[in-house]
């Protein structure tokens, strides 16, 4: 739309507003969608629910959604077959034949609202428990946020695991009281059930449990932590009932209503009519959660730790003379520049200069991001012939055609351009489409499908240079598997999972995972994948039809294999941490205590 059109629309709407002002206020009083479109105020739960349920089910749109999902799962999702296999001990999910579920989806239930249909579909896809794979209907997920304003955590005390209040922005007196019941269930069980049924960030339930609760540093990153208390999915009811036990007070019960607000950005809808067309528009914009600071909780601190290196990609700290910590919170940056890789080298070099004897690499809550940075960090710290896990993707006949097409020099290229990937075997770019396509038929979950040749990413020249320079640098990293430990809260995801799994598998580094369930093994990483992509890839694939409504699918397109056990797919290997730690009231607010505990695990 050009500026002139905008201007005309503006003039029109001013004129309209003038004429319909009286009816507007009338419609606000009986249009729940208009009420919840208002920013800066709290909404009624019933208004959100009524608005969401107002969009009628449209069977032709639904069929198209199912068709596109079927295409993506049939030919692109890399775990479609493997998801049908029996579940390895340590994981919590059930084998799922996603294609047959999608096939019979509309036979099982008749829908009257668009919301119910999309919600069922969303929770079906969640059953894969693949953190990279998420189906979202934008109009029911991305504009309205539900906040309990009470944030929970779990501590182990006298050999017993309990749920406590980490922070409460409404009533500070509740902080650190024990939560004994949630909605008339024992609190621990209620959180566990929530993690079991509502979350899909890991196949390991212990990691999902951590994600449901407040995390060490930021209390409300909706995508990684605090998911019980801060939601974008419509909750089942307007409130949650808690029973609390506080020191010197009698146990008491209270009902906490959701504080429901509208995100502070331009909305594509203003009332019920525009809300409904928004649901059926192809516009999709995902919700980007904002972090929250604890308000009434004792402040988070780095305690005795001294910061000695401060950069965007990595921080370094020392604890006394002997312990060094490198903290890497993300591989995802607003603007990724290769030169950020110097900062990983800088953080470790700083600790080397200070001659620390032990190193804790803290990767807690790292959501992943750039695969190049993860691979680079792997090779920087644990040099070896192969410092990237081999990966592959699905190559059914339609995708083979695309590979041949995109690999032609005169084409526009794209994700499937063969020469943009390195063969795992030769370490060099594939010479042609056929090399990339390869000849690997694999049978998983009773189905045989074609997978590409094994390949790895092409590291940018700058990263390769830094790696080379480090080998010749006067400042070498003197630590090994007896003096380095990887610390996470289980949520070291995607690219972070790739690097931590590499440190553990090739470097033989010990790992320690904090949180989870008492005396149960806990993964130190989650959903390594390969690579996540979204349905936008369909623009490169003329054989498939895109979605026609406001929905999206993120999914794993590439899978990574173990280097040591080349037939094992990393996502489906249960890899618990060598050591366990638990949160308590102190180490969850003073991270230096946790780092000290982790370092103590090294002899
Ligand atoms: C359902 O959606 C299609 C495609 O957007 C549209 O053409 C049709 O009119 C809709 N049907 C109903 C009953 O609204
Ligand atoms: C509800 O949440 C909003 C946004 O976080 C906040 O500004 C507001 O104060 C909260 N309302 C109440 C009643 O606490
Ligand atoms: C091959 O590429 C051309 C343009 O480069 C495109 O028009 C065509 O649809 C592509 N075919 C396939 C199967 O990708
Ligand atoms: C494919 O990738 C290579 C390496 O990145 C690049 O040089 C080439 O131009 C790409 N081919 C096309 C057709 O875009
Ligand atoms: C593909 O592999 C199969 C079995 O490994 C072999 O029989 C066949 O000849 C191979 N095809 C090509 C084109 O290399």
Automatic annotation (TrEMBL):
Signal peptide positions on this chain: 1-25
Domain CPAF-like PDZ: 146-245
Gene Ontology terms, MF aspect: serine-type peptidase activity
Species of the source: Acaulospora morrowiae
PANTHER family in alphabetical order: PEPTIDASE S41 FAMILY PROTEIN (PTHR37049), RHODANESE DOMAIN-CONTAINING PROTEIN (PTHR37049:SF4)
Record key words, sorted: Signal
Protein's recorded name: 9369_t:CDS:1
Gene3D superfamilies per record: 2-enoyl-CoA Hydratase, Chain A, domain 1
Database matches in InterPro entries: ClpP/crotonase-like_dom_sf, PDZ_CPAF-rel, S41A_metabolite_peptidase, Tail-specific_protease
């Amino acid at each position: 739309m050009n500026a002139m059109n905008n201007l005309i629309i503006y003039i029109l709407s001013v004129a309209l507003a003038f004429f319909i002002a009286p009816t507007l206020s009338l419609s606000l009083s009986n249009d729940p969608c208009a009420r919840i479109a208002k920013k800066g105020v709290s909404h009624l739960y019933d208004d959100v629910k009524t608005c969401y349920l107002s969009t009628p089910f449209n069977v032709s749109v639904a069929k198209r959604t199912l068709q596109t999902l079927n295409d993506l799962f049939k030919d692109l999702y890399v775990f479609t077959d493997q998801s049908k296999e029996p579940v390895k001990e340590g994981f919590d999910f059930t084998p799922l034949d996603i294609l047959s579920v999608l096939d019979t989806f509309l036979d099982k239930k008749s829908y009257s609202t668009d919301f119910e249909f999309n919600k069922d579909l969303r929770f079906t896809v969640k059953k894969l428990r693949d953190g990279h794979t998420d189906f979202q209907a934008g109009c029911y997920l991305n504009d309205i946020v539900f906040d309990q304003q009470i944030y929970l955590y779990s501590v182990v005390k006298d050999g017993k695991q309990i749920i406590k209040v980490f922070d409460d922005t409404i009533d500070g007196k509740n902080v650190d009281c024990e939560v004994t019941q949630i909605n008339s269930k024992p609190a621990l069980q209620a959180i566990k059930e929530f993690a079991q049924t509502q979350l899909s960030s890991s196949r390991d339930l212990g990691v999902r449990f951590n994600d449901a609760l407040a995390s060490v540093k930021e209390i409300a990153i909706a995508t990684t932590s605090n998911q019980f208390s801060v939601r974008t999915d419509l909750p089942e009811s307007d409130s949650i009932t808690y029973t609390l036990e506080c020191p010197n007070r009698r146990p008491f019960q209270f009902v906490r209503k959701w504080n429901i607000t509208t995100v502070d950005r331009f909305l594509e809808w203003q009332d019920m009519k525009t809300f409904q067309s928004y649901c059926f528009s192809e516009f999709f914009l995902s919700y980007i959660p904002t972090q929250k600071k604890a308000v009434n909780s004792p402040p988070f601190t780095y305690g005795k730790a001294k910061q000695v290196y401060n950069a965007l990609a990595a921080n370094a700290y020392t604890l006394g003379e002997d312990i060094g910590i490198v903290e890497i919170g993300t591989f995802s940056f607003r603007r990724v520049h290769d030169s950020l890789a110097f900062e990983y080298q800088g953080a470790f070099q700083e600790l080397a200069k200070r001659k620390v004897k032990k190193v804790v690499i803290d990767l807690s809550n790292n959501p992943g991001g750039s695969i190049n940075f993860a691979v680079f960090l792997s090779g920087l710290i644990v040099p070896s012939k192969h410092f990237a896990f081999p990966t592959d993707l699905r190559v059914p006949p339609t995708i083979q055609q695309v590979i041949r097409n995109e690999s032609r020099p005169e084409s526009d290229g794209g994700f499937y351009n063969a020469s943009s990937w390195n063969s795992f075997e030769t370490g060099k770019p594939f010479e042609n489409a056929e090399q990339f396509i390869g000849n690997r038929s694999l049978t998983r979950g009773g189905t045989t499908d074609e997978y590409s040749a094994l390949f790895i990413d092409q590291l940018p020249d700058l990263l390769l240079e830094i790696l080379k320079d480090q080998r010749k640098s006067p400042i070498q990293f003197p630590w090994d598997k007896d003096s380095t430990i990887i610390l996470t809260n289980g949520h070291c995801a995607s690219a972070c999972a790739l690097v931590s799994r590499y440190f553990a598998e090739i470097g033989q580094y010990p790992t320690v995972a904090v949180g989870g369930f008492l005396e149960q093994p806990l993964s130190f990483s989650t959903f390594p994948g390969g690579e996540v992509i979204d349905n936008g890839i369909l623009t490169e694939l003329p054989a498939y039809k895109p979605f026609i409504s406001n929905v999206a699918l993120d999914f794993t397109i590439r899978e990574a294999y173990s280097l040591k056990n080349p037939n094992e797919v990393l996502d489906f290997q249960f890899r618990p941490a060598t050591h366990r730690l638990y949160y308590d009231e102190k180490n969850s607010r003073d991270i230096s205590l946790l780092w000290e505990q982790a370092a103590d695990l090294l002899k």
